[in-house]
Amino acid sequence: MAARAGAWAVLGLVLVSLSAAAWAQAGTSPGQPSQTATEGSSARGGTPANPDTGFRFSLDPKAPDDGMSLQLSGPLRVLFLLTLITLIPAVVMMMTSFTRIIIVLGFIRTALGTQQIPPNQVMVGLALFLTAFVMAPTLEEVNEKALQPYLANEIGVEAAISRGLTPLRVMMYRQTREADIGLMVRLAKMDRPKSLADVPTHVLVPAFIISELKTAFEMGFIIYVPFLIIDMVIASTLMSMGMMMLPPVIISMPFKLLLFVLVDGWHVIVRSLVTSFG
Predict the structure, then answer these.
(1) Which residues contact 267 (CB under 8 A, 6 or more apart)?
(2) 3 state SS of 147
C-alpha cells in the first residue's frame, strides 16, 4: 500500500511536466525523455540541456552549476512539491478513469430517482476505489519505472516525471478516440501525429477527457432506457385510471428498485465499468 500511495504521489509530480511539455515541444518527444536529457543527467538525474533556451530549470540540488541553471533552495523545493501535491485531485479527476466512473454512477442514481441515495460520499468513495482498481497496472508500472529508481537515488526528479508520465500517457491514448485527438491537433495547429510519441501531453489530456465524457454519456443512456420505459408505463397506467393528480414517480420508484435488485444492478454496473477500460 505504501508503494501504491507513493505512485499516486509521483502522478502528482507528473502534472508539472504538462507546462514543460507546452514550453519545450520543439526537439523533444513528450512521452519520452530526450536524448540530451539522458546524456546530460548526473547520477541523481541532472538538468537536461535545452539548445533552444539559454537557461535550464532543475529541482536537483546536486546538479552542476554552470551559470546557466536556475536552482531552487531547499525551502522553495519543499514549497514546490507541496504545491504539486495539492494538484493531485486534478490529476486523479482528469488523467485517470475517475471521470467516467463517477458520471456513470451519477446517471444510475438519477435514473433510479432516489435523489441523494446513495449519498455523495458513498458515490465518490466507490468511484475512487474503482479508479484505484482500474489504474493498478499503471500505478505498478509507475512505481517500478519511476518511483523506486528515484527513491534509490538512481534518477532525478526530471527523469522520474518523464518515466512516470509515459505509462499514464499510454493508458490515456488507449481510451481516447482518434477523432478527439484529431480535433485537439487541429485546434493546436500541429502536424498530423504518426504515433503516441508525436502527441504532446497538453493535447492528449483534453482529448482523453472529451472521450471519457462521451463514453460515460453513452453508458448513461443505456442505463436510462429501461428505467425510462418503467416511468412511461406507470405514467400511462395512472392516466388511463384517471389518477392524474398522483405523481408517477411515487409508483415507479419501487418498481425501478425492484428491477435493479433483480438484475443485481451494482454487480452489472461495476463489471461494465471495469471491463470498459480493457
Answers:
(1) none
(2) helix
